[in-house]
Design goal:
The protein is mainly alpha-helical and 186 residues long. The protein has seven helices and two strands; from the N terminus they run H-H-H-H-H-H-E-E-H. The protein has one domain. The chain has a two-stranded antiparallel ribbon. A hairpin with a 2-residue loop joins strand 1 and strand 2.
Length: 186
């Protein structure tokens, strides 16, 4: 399996291409959903983790996975991938306004698609790292991370944007609020 930073880069690149095809107004709607998801996960992660631990202990005989961390990692992956699918599929929260043309459309679509790729791939990587890369299907091991990957972990979305900034709230709350206001005002 390729190093995790290569997989991360490929996923970000694929989302950048999707951003080019969809246009930045539609991609901003997905960004709003993803920022809200990240805020929700940072705010309610202790409650979710406690509830998942209880559910795993109740279903211990039923679940055949190797560890509690593997179950948690799969559930968080399901939440992230499911939310991303719902945000992209069907009628989306497209922002109003005139679509851009030419180089502006290219650059803005590329940037918003790259941002969405960073949010999705980075959050998946964050939870894989948080639980010690328990899903052996992907082939990642925490002891085999390159120095580049170890340095990148500090800049994953929840780590980078989730810390308290002002009045004890995370940057995710303020960015989500700004995107929501931009969506409502337009």
């Amino acid at each position: 399996m390729a190093p995790i930073e290569i997989l991360f880069g490929v996923l970000v690149f694929v989302f950048a291409l999707i951003g080019l095809a969809r246009g930045f107004l539609r991609e901003l709607g997905v960004t709003l959903v993803l920022m809200f998801l990240l805020y929700f996960l940072t705010r309610f992660e202790p409650i979710l983790t406690t509830g998942l631990a209880r559910a795993v202990s109740i279903g211990e005989g039923v679940v055949t996975m190797r560890s509690e961390d593997e179950v948690k990692a799969w559930i968080y992956l399901f939440i992230i991938i499911g939310s991303t699918f719902v945000a992209y599929e069907g009628e989306t929260l497209a922002f109003g306004g005139q679509p851009l043309r030419g180089a502006q459309a290219f650059i803005m679509g590329l940037l918003t698609g790259t941002l969405n790729g960073y949010l999705v791939a980075g959050t998946i990587w964050f939870y894989l790292d948080r639980f010690g890369y328990p899903i052996r299907f992907f082939g990642f091991r925490p002891t085999e991370l390159s120095p580049v990957a170890q340095g990148m972990i500090r800049f994953l979305p929840i780590t980078f944007l989730g810390g308290p900034v002002l009045l004890g709230q995370s940057l995710l709350l303020y960015l989500t609020g700004l995107l929501f206001l931009a969506r409502v005002i337009r």
